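A student in our group prepared the protein record below, which I am reviewing. Here is the record exactly as it was handed to me.
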Amino acid sequence: MTTTLRHVLCLTMLVGTAVSAAGGLGSGQDAGRTAQPTFSTESDLVVLQVTVFDRHGDSVRELPREVFHVIEDGTPQTITQFSGDEAPVAVGLVLDNSSSMLTRRNMVVAGITAFAESSKPDDQAFTMVFNETVRPGLPPTVPFTSNAMLLQASAAAVPAGGQTALHDAVIAALDHLRMAERQKHVLVVLSDGEDNASRQSQEEMLRRAEQSNALIYTVSTARLDTSVGNERLLRKLARSSGGDLYTPRTERDVVAAFGEIGVKIRQGYTIGYVSTNPAQDGSYRKLTVRVYAPGMRAPVVHVRDGYLAPRTRHEQ
């Protein structure tokens, strides 16, 4: 038996074992029994994921709706829906599997493990693994899972090698997130930011991110080698969604970043409002969220920079 065939058979057995161990949570269908805050599904609702930090850099919890103020293109908006409670999340782990990751499989699995330690039974998670080809890491019958063992196996389901289709992978993951039942959507992207194989452009990837309600965190691998990469793009992708870029210098730092992100995504607020601008023209709307809380000095608010308004069919 060749080494490659043995590797594939071992991975198949591992995935099968993990599916059995998932205990019915693999599809994410049975995980929604616990009561949780839900938002209206009206198409004109703008949903924001907001994180507030004090001047020491610590996240601030349990703030009431009244201290939040949303401004769109200079016009105050009325918050119609609000949640500061910890709720289940839908998370996509977008993982570079190109030639640069040949020796870093253990790092990726350790990162997933660190991330999973903060997960909850009602969460929905999946992996999107990419080189020049983008593939869901989970089996076709398991779109989402809350099983850490299955997530680890999915990251190793395809041998590393080849080129990099980052733009395609992010777009595919955003599309997959739309199937999730959870209100809060998150992407964690592990990449050096370079792309040499995508069919979709960088501009299209950023446009799709701006249209999505997903909170995006990016973990750069550029500094693990010779600083070759596009961290500027990774920063733009993250910041435009209200997320952040991590720039680890060691594999241990990468694992720590995954663990920190796993905690951070549960520390925010979900805010919904219907824009006072009814035009469905596809224009970009600039957003600002301010927090005025008694006794709190100079809070730092992380939220997406803006969003793309919907476009009516006859204007497309």
Q: What stands out?
A: DSSP finds seven helices and 14 strands in the chain. The two ends are 55 Å apart (CA to CA).
